[in-house]
Amino acid sequence: MIIMIVCVCVATLAFVGLVIAVILSLRSAVRRLDHVQAVTSELQRESTQLIGELRTVLGSADMTVQSVRQQLSHTEKLFKSAGELGAALEQTANTVQRVSAALSESAVHQVEQAGRKYRRQIGEALEWVEMGYTAWQWVQSKRQSAANNVESTGRDEGHDKDERRES
Question: Would you say residue 144 has pLDDT above 80?
Fold first, then answer.
């Protein structure tokens, strides 16, 4: 009978210990989730800000492209008007018009290529920011881990900087 009571007590204590361990693990997990949520919120805020800046830059680039196209359109009209001046200038005007069309196409191609170039650079910049942030988090976790180790042992395992080596 006493053995049964002892077994019941031991089982109860083991169960209580297990419940305490589960509760502590859950509290730790909740703290970690809170930290992840805070970091995610910060990343979302920064991403929203970067997207706003990207929209501004792309809007400026779009306005520049439209301005160039409008100017090229005016240039083309000017060359067409020059072609209508007369039979004597017709061949010269046709030559200028072909050059203008080639320049227009080249300019539009250059502007579109520049737009793609900036998008890629912005994407690369965002990747660098993400890698830097990940590295910063890793360093912070290592610092926190080192600080926790020093606090848990109650002493610093390092050497005093003024300590001399004996030969």
Answer: yes
